[in-house]
Task: structure prediction
Amino acid sequence: MITRSKEGTKSSSGEKTARLEARITVAQKELFQRAAALQGRSLTDFLVSSAQEQAMRTIREHEVMELSARDREAFVTALLDSPEPGPRLRKAADSYL
Result:
């Protein structure tokens, strides 16, 4: 029995079940076909792997913060050597909690 996931990406047996279609120009299709051929891949494999790589890169860029050495030191110092909360901060915390 093949069970499709809610998103339809793969069944429990690993079968691909989702479908994605896009309208593109003839020039775009020729470009994609040429690139796929240069890599010795099918057009589908080339497009899926390229889209997946770009999606992962985009997500990583939005989820990961890279700091310079100076900024990293300032961040760690602020965490480890944070001052005691002042009266205004205590009052705000008390009203929040």
In short: Helices lie at 26-38, 43-63, 69-80, 87-96. The chain has four helices and no strands.
